[in-house]
Automatic annotation (TrEMBL), chains A, B:
Organism: Streptomyces liangshanensis
Function: Modulates transcription in response to changes in cellular NADH/NAD(+) redox state.
SMART domains reported in the protein's UniProt record: CoA_binding
Gene transcribed to yield this protein: rex
UniProt-recorded name of the protein: Redox-sensing transcriptional repressor Rex
Quaternary assembly: Homodimer.
Annotated segments matching region Disordered: 223-265
Entry's localization field: Cytoplasm
Length: 265, 265
DNA sequence: CGCTGTGAATTCATTCACAGCG
DNA sequence: CGCTGTGAATGAATTCACAGCG
């Protein structure tokens, strides 16, 4: 990906930044809601609010797609829905397979937003022979043995892995060998794939851990705020509300013997 | 460096970059696996591979935490596990509530990796009176009416929203009012929260859409690479270069005004 | 030596601020 | 006027590359 250094002069002809791509679905969702309410046009300000971003960012994002707005007015909702859908490749239907029909896999299979927008669950696959034939979300589960056949018969290029961590890499390899080039991984493990295959991961415990980090920081600040007095500043120096570094940021270097007790017991 | 140049050598005492925070759980997972295999030390190179990042990035990340390695040797696995756990706030247990016990909520409740690392499901909450009392993953579901009491009785500061989109904002407000300051949102909607509250979102269809974008791009490149044959089908693959230079082509507008109606809601 | 830790360089993303079109 | 589209400025993240410690 992006390895090829095009000799294209400055102006990116089609290099939409990754960060922008990641926001297009958000815009699309907001626009779809407006469309359902028959709202004809939106300003960047309104749409940005609905999508939870700021308007400068939204306008910059749209500028990578082309000039789809009208100065003094805003954007035509229907038109933008179409343009973004097209950009995301949602004007076609993507058959998807879900591998691993446990609790999570079943929940994904039942997830409505799936079919509604450009994706179609082509098959559910599980390694447990007991599951074979049993319908989940109206679709009969098929055994892993059929994986390769299913992929090629249906021209599947997107696979969802919802197996236990231990099985994920192997499943991944089979999917890739069978022709899948995009994988959404729910298993808590790092997948290694050949070049040209995209992997995105969703991991509950990672998200929780990130939240815990911030939560802990908040607790620390709170405590520091209450007793705003000289304390072991190395321990849990409350970052200034803004971002800049707080005062007295002396050297670092974690003195190994010292394990600063951080938890506000 | 640009503006840098404060009086202080910018040794941030605690300003860990967000991107780094997001990777700490990955390192932790890889380290935990090593620890279970009783591996005593790892080099940045090995650990980086296991975590799926490159070693320079890993070393830079660790440098924000302190100097926990030994030159010429690597990192002590146990020690690093401890340091990262502490940094992430996992040396304490975080009670978590899950609101919305449908397919997904149930799957989350059953998710093992939950309890295993610093988190404890304090309660399951659902709006359906039918659900009340029924145990899911061994925990009895409680009715939404109890939400505030549950939060405060258990000192919950992290909430997981797995309700339908329509209910999410309201649930969010009640959680926040009751004292929750970190939210993991699985509902496909933008939550608005007051300052000081962190929200992270997990959205299946967004992830799929991002994959579809890249998938489409691959298909386009492939076609173009194959043999510049005039593809008869969709004339708008990933390559449709309608965007161009900002300078000369200043006044370009959408494609010949048309194409309104589109997606099936 | 080998491998960490880190300034400096580079690349990527966000924000500002305003020219200019409708 | 109001609002888009976008250069330029700023800021964040990644990568390079190497000094220096064990």
């Amino acid at each position: 990906m992006a390895t090829g250094r095009t000799h294209r002069p400055a102006t990116r002809s089609r290099g939409i930044p990754e960060a922008t791509v990641a926001r297009l679905p958000l815009y699309l969702r907001a626009l779809t809601a407006l469309s359902e309410r028959s709202v004809p046009t939106v300003s960047s300000e309104e749409l940005a609010t609905a999508a939870g971003v700021n308007s400068a960012k939204l306008r910059k994002d749209f500028s990578y797609l082309g000039s789809y707005g009208t100065r003094g007015v805003g954007y035509d909702v229907e038109y933008l829905v179409y343009q973004i859908s097209r950009e995301l490749g949602l004007t076609q239907d993507w058959p998807v397979v879900i591998v691993g029909i446990g609790n999570l896999g079943a929940a994904l299979a039942n997830y409505g937003g799936f079919a509604s927008r450009g994706f179609r669950v082509a098959a559910l696959i599980d390694a447990d022979p007991e599951m074979a034939g049993k319908p989940v979300a109206g679709i009969p589960v098929q055994h892993t043995d059929e994986l390769e056949k299913i992929i090629s018969d249906n021209g599947v290029s997107i696979g969802v892995i919802a197996t236990p961590a231990g099985a994920a890499q192997q499943v991944c390899e089979r999917l890739v060998a069978a022709g899948v080039t995009s994988i959404l991984n729910f298993a808590p493990t790092v997948l290694s794939v050949p070049d040209g295959v995209d992997v995105r991961k969703v991991d509950l415990s990672i998200e929780l851990q990130i939240l815990a980090f911030h939560e802990q920081r908040k607790a620390g600040e709170e405590a520091a705020a209450e007793a705003a007095l000289p304390a072991g500043e190395r321990a849990l120096p409350a970052d200034a509300p803004r971002d800049t570094a707080p005062p007295g940021a002396a050297g670092r270097k974690g003195p190994e013997g010292d394990v600063p007790a951080v938890m506000p017991a």
